[in-house]
Amino acid sequence: MENKYTQRISRNKIGRDFVIGDIHANKKRLFKALDSVCFDKTKDRLFSVGDLIDRGKHNLPILDLLRENWFFAVRGNHEQMLINRFEFPLTRLPYQVGVSETRFGAEEVHERNGGKWFARLRSELARTRIYQNLAALPYAIELETNQGVLGIVHAEVPERFDGWSEFVESLHNDSKTKEDSVWNRLAIESVYHAEQGKYWEAEFTDESRFIEGIDAVVHGHTGVHESVICGNQVWIDTGQKTGDLTILRVEDLLDLVEKKND
Predict the structure, then answer these.
(1) Selection from 181, 179, 184, 176 nearest residue 164 by Cα
(2) Domain boundaries, the chain
(3) Distance (Å, rounded) from C-alpha 262 to C-alpha 241?
(4) How many CB atoms within 10 Å of residue 67?
């Protein structure tokens, strides 16, 4: 770990690397996905796009994965909501209710989004350790592969950044960049209608955007029916739409991006 905002990881020289969509505390879906690729914990590695917690029943077992040397994750908005209830307990945060925005305390925002399990924990020490582990998660991972470099960011690389290095540098000193990287949906909404589960018609679609300095970037956060590709960005959060987690070998993901843009 170079700092608490970004993490650079070298190529796996003995096995395979996989990336997986938002787990949301669902152990059954996770292990079904791992079984589907014959995952070998002794040599393979798994990279999460964030949102490990909330909504599911297995929050603590999923969080235990952070202790494993084969498991890596970036920070998602659900991790950030839990962090906020520790760091800003008295701050009222914006929250969308229908078409209007109101403000709730950080604790209530988290609990409205599947975080009631955390309040039920009896041990203050356990709650503090969970917070500390999640606060240590990076906003971005840069993974070296056999076919190039893959970036991993929960929601998106904000559209104001043309290059990966510019985005990573901004993570170090700009709170808005951090917030946008775990919450925004502007990039995917410019090309894909999430509710209808299809790409916009060509005349309504922005020109494909390529982030310079990185071969591809993979995201979760926005529910999709299948992997969505725009330029060299890929969104893979299929769990909430299909009930199954998308798991991809990183080289296969890079191949998908290359074929889409041929």
Answers:
(1) 181
(2) 6-74+138-260, 77-136
(3) 28
(4) 8
Do residues 74 and 80 make contact, with C-beta atoms less than 8 angstroms apart? no
* pLDDT tens track, the chain, 262 positions: 445 899 999 999 999 999 999 999 999 999 999 999 999 999 999 999 999 999 999 999 999 999 999 999 999 999 999 999 989 876 666 554 443 445 578 898 899 999 999 999 999 999 999 999 999 999 999 999 999 999 999 999 999 999 999 999 999 999 999 999 999 999 998 888 888 888 877 644 555 789 999 999 999 999 999 999 999 999 999 999 999 999 999 999 999 999 888 7
Burial of 117 (0-12, 13-18, 19+ CB in 10 A): middle
- Amino acid at residue number 162: D
Indicate the CATH number of 6-74+138-260 among 3.60.21.10, 3.40.50.150, 3.90.226.10, 1.10.10.10. 3.60.21.10
